[in-house]
Amino acid sequence: MKRIIILMIVTVIFSLSCDKETTKNNEILTIEDLLVKNNEITGWSYSGGSWVANNISDLTTYIDGLAEIFQRHGFVEAAHQQYQGKIDGANRQLLLYIYNQGIEENAKALYQDPDLGLSGAVDWTQGNPGKEAHYIRYGGLSQVLSFYQDKYYVQIQINYDTEESLNVLKQFALNVSGKM
Fold this sequence. Notes:
Blueprint: H1 2-26, E1 45-53, H2 56-63, H3 67-72, E2 77-87, E3 90-100, H4 104-112, E4 122-123, E5 132-138, E6 142-149, E7 152-158, H5 163-179
Antiparallel strand pairs: 1-2, 2-3, 3-7, 4-5, 5-6, 6-7
C-alpha cells in the first residue's frame, strides 16, 4: 500500500513538472514575457514607469479615453514599459505597449481601427514583424510603429523622428515579434 501511494505521488509530481516545462517551452507564460528586457537591446534600458492591466478597469486607469477602443475589440490584458536610450547623442524615450486581444481577428480589427489615430501610416513590408505592420512619422517630432501577430496588437512610440530612431523602433518590433 505504501509503495502504491509513493508511486502515485511520484507520478503526480513528475506529470506536474512535465506540464510546467511544456508551458515554459511552448507558450508565453505572461504578457510581460513579451516585453523587451532591460538592456536586451544594446543602449536601451528601463526608465519611468511600467504597468500591466488585467481588465478594462485597469486599462482605463492607464490610457483612459482609448480604453474603449481596445474593449470594442476583445481586450484581455495589456503591458507597457518605458525605455531610455541615446540617438544622435541625446537621451530619447521609447514606449512599448502590448495588448492581448484574445484572438487574431480582434488584434487585426484593432490594428485597422481608424480611431487609434494612425491614419496616414506607411505599411512596413520589408522584414516586418507580425502579420502586418505600419509606422507613422509626426513631422520631425516622433514616430509610432504598430503591428499585430496572433492575438497581440503592439504599438511602439519614440519621441524623435530620424532614420536612426525608425531603425530603433523596428529593432524593438522584431524583438517582440520574435517572442510571440
